[in-house]
Amino acid sequence: MAGIYISWPFCAQKCTYCNFASGVQPKGLESEYSAALAAEIAATDWALTPDTVYIGGGTPSAIPASDFGGLLEGIPGRPWAEATLEAAPGSLTPEKIAAWTGAGINRVSLGVQSFIRGELARTGRKHDAETVRGDVAMLRAGGIANFNLDLIAGLPGQTASSWRESLEAVVALDPPHVSVYMLEVDEDSRLGSEIILGGKRYGAFDVPSEDAVAGFYESAVAYLAGCGIERYEISNFARPGAESLHNLKYWRREPYVGLGSDAHSFDGVKRWRNPEMAVDYVARWHRGGVGREEETAAEPVEEKFFVGLRLAEGVEANASDWERFGDVFQRFLESGILVRDGDRLRLSARGVMVSNEVFQEFVG
Ligand code: SF4
Questions:
Q1: Domain presence at residue 288
Q2: Is residue 262 part of a domain?
Q3: pLDDT tens digits, residue range 108-143?
Q4: Total number of domains constituting the chain
């Protein structure tokens, strides 16, 4: 079984911290992109039947209800075990939710980011806490009880008490799944360039320190666990059984096919990616081509640890892994960054905080 990722890179605004190849796009591009995407779906070899679908971006929840069904028409494997749509708070309507469920969507991921008005305003988002509460009620009323709420730790102006307020507000909505991302300001984002210029826009002068962000993250792990929402991946938390089936495929190195701009694919042996920018993806379709641009051979052993150690369950290290990485394992075990449970290795709580440095050791 495979996972299908569909990229919809159009947004109503460009969030100040965002460095994705998504955002406000040139007028007219959206309809051409839809046609290029439909052509890529039609040209896809469905050797593996998909059991999970994930539509991300971008803001796919902005697609009009009348156009939504067509997007997934060519994808086989219904009913999918899990089909997620990323949604921006404030973009939901009962008509859209009916169109989503009619097309097979059974899970929604809401990009909440914060429940604090001032923090949201600085990101460029238009919603507030009431919008999110209304959206969650609308999802439940529309038959989507399986949903994720995203939070960002490290937004400009965030404090320990405002962070706690957002955590409590999330839990009050009783979500099956929560994602907590630690903001790493990218210099290509508007916030990043404002910081470099020493400016004041977007709260650039008020970004919490790395230590503060680490503290926010650790308090989230403890608070969510106390509410029965356990961390199962560095940024992902779920009630038992509500882990994202689609995203688990990335960390367990199971096959997935990415469709649309900036989408990545992996068939178990090779990895490939599509053109990053929507304009280039559409231009390629105009030239008679669809999909893949760069292809590389997968590196099974490196990737096993590079992605697998993100999971709280860790990875099983066999004799040949020990032969190859024994020195690295030993060093991290001795320093308390890795923990050994039988044949499995996993990151300790401290290891999670330095995970990027750990993963570097496994890059070929
Ligand atoms: S953060 Fe999400 S909604 Fe905001 S610009 Fe980036 S992709 Fe669009």
A1: no
A2: no
A3: 999 999 999 999 999 999 999 999 999 999 999 999
A4: 2
